[in-house]
Fold:
Amino acid sequence: GEDVEQSLFLSVREGDSSVINCTYTDSSSTYLYWYKQEPGAGLQLLTYIFSNMDMKQDQRLTVLLNKKDKHLSLRIADTQTGDSAIYFCAESTSGYSTLTFGKGTMLLVSP
Amino acid sequence: DTGVSQNPRHKITKRGQNVTFRCDPISEHNRLYWYRQTLGQGPEFLTYFQNEAQLEKSRLLSDRFSAERPKGSFSTLEIQRTEQGDSAMYLCASSLGQPAYEQFFGPGTRLTVL
Structure:
């Protein structure tokens, strides 16, 4: 079945770049997503990328996709303490279908 | 646009009791999803609706769970004869019927079964 794996924890200093990695197994994954979850809050979509793209940049966020290796990464430039949260990688096979999530990476940004 | 709302936000119940949660999606969204999230895990899909039709159910959804969306607007998720293993955050999300890439999530209902 489908599986999405992420490293569980990342700690960075404010101002540094953060890179969160994700691997997935479903070769039919068409859409790949990064969601952010802050304590007590719902999931917030940060960005997404289609499987026919290699890279997507959106302000401080850069998503890289290596489809051959089924590897996705999220880079946050100039990380701020407000970026501390849990980041989830998710995949779906179509724009309609359900999402399969990883277990999440807790990002801790220290001043 | 008031976003996806869920009620109640917290529910504490005793084992064996029935509970019902409600989700109100964004008004023009005709797809509605239920997920369950336990501590330290990502959300896991339970079921989804297009309008009032329940199109898919996960094998996680035992026969004690039932979901409805009677008029294609709000949805309810009922758990009968709750068990301690049902303790989790129950998340609702909605999206447009078109190939829309974002599912908008509600704040969740946290269920604790004693």
Notes: The mean pLDDT of chain B is 92. The longest strand of chain B covers residues 88-95.
